[in-house]
Amino acid sequence: METSGKKRDAHIVEVEFNQQQEVVLKQLAIDGKYGKDYAEIIRNVFQELLRQTRL
Amino acid sequence: MTQYGEKREDMVIQPVSGKALELYRGEVLRITQVEGAQCVDFNAFNLHDYKEYLGVSNTRSQHGFRPRKGDIVWSVQSRNRPMFIILEMPETCVTDLLGGRCKAANHYPEGFTPSAHGTHTNCQDTFAACIGEYGLTPDDVHDSFNMWMNTEWDSRGQYWIVRNSGRKGDYVDLLAMFDTLAVPIICGSGDTQLTSNYAFRPIQVQIFKASAETEAICISYESKYGPAQRKLGDFQVPDIRTDRELKRNANYKPQFVNFPITTKKIPVELTEEQHAALDELKNNGWGVTDGEALRTAFFTWYHRNWRPVPLRGRVRQS
Questions:
Q1: What is the per-residue pLDDT across B12-25, written as a single tens digit (0 to 9) for each?
Q2: Is residue A43 part of a domain?
Q3: Domain range holding A42?
Q4: Do B180 and B23 form a contact (C-beta atoms < 8 A)?
Q5: Closest approach of B291 to chain A, Cα-based (Å)
Q6: Distance from C-alpha of B253 to C-alpha of B259, rounded to nearest angstrom
Q7: Would you say residue A9 has pLDDT above 90?
Q8: Nearest CA to B144 among B203, B80, B60?
Q9: Interfacial residues of B (vs A; Cβ cutoff 8 Å)
Q10: Measured between alpha carbons, how far is B96 from B170 in angstroms, rounded to an integer?
Q11: pLDDT-based confidence at B246, cuts 50/70/90?
């Protein structure tokens, strides 16, 4: 289902979103604060969560 | 305080009885403790479509176990609209959405069985007696919105009853958002249980006509919550059954919402540091795979930061 791999120092993580979850992404993309591209939004949101939780 | 219209009904409901009352949009039902400490159970139906009735679990999901002044009493999820607004409710009126309603069998251990001492009074039977006036059956009685019912509960939701804190003169005002059949009754278990401090007492019930202010309140709630309402036109099967036997319709094709669910894979590039943090989240139970943990992280952030705050401003996801 989801895999991860290495690209130099980076990791590619595949995340599955269904059509309803995608609506959430679409709304964030329209807002633009966290990016326009889905992958960019997910990464930025993840980074924001890490910042908030100080992980 | 909101200005109501003139009083058009005023009655005292005697112990172990109740009354089905037509309460129209914009009108206010006032329930008053005549002596205090009397648990009042409450059922309500859309006067023009009894299949829409007071939704205890719908209300509970919005306001918790104890709705109070300012909260909304919702109709069932199939319709999902504000049914009553609690305009007035004193702190001494503790509400309950856990107990449902008492039934005759609750009192079997006390000897109230058909073969021994007969039936003990109970809310199921009292409600049924009231709504029979409108052709409704005991099966139409629904879980009750309980007022002046002091319950406490443990972490599993097991509840117990503590002493009734209702005081003489306490009153609750419920504003009807649409035409309803409102059914307040005296709880039938309070003489042998702590619900009403081991005694039955009367309650006073009054109805105040709609006023410009109450109508304005109705309009404001409608404008806010109206779009979330479901109507018969939304139903795949809108007609009410008239026979009791369930029979399969071989030609029926269910219209499930957003069926089938489809997914798409989104590749997300993470730095070494971010990936290490994702590993930590996995170790903390956020998911088995990287993708699952990242999705959990995404929605955890979303619920904490982004999702529009629902009623009463309570969102808790973690």
A1: 999 999 999 999 99
A2: yes
A3: 17-53
A4: yes
A5: 4
A6: 12
A7: no
A8: B60
A9: 258, 261-272, 274-275, 277-278, 280-281, 289-292, 294-295, 297-302, 304-306
A10: 17
A11: confident
- Global model pTM greater than 0.80: yes
Set of chain B residues whose Cβ sits within 8 Å of the Cβ of A20:
258, 261
DSSP H helical ranges for chain B: 56-63, 123-131, 212-225, 272-283, 290-305
Task: Tokens 């009885």: give the residue.
Answer: B17
A6: in domain: no
Residues whose CB falls within 8 Å of the CB of residue B242, separated by 6 or more in sequence, listed in order = none
- Domain-located, residue A12: no
Instruction: Parse chain B into domains and list their residue ranges.
Output: 7-234, 264-305
Enter the ipTM. 0.88
Angle (CA) B60-B204-B164 rounded to 5° is 50
Please check whether residue A54 touches B, CB under 8 A: no
Query: B264 has which bridge partners?
Result: A17
**Number of compact structural domains in chain A:** 1
Of the partner residues B269, B295, B305, the one whose CB lies closest to the CB of residue A12: B269
Beta bridge mates, B32: B171, B204
Residue A35 lies in a domain: yes
Q: Average model confidence (pLDDT) for chain B?
A: 94
For residue range B23-36, what is the model confidence (pLDDT) as tens digits? 999 999 999 999 99
Distance from CA of B230 to the nearest CA of A (A): 20
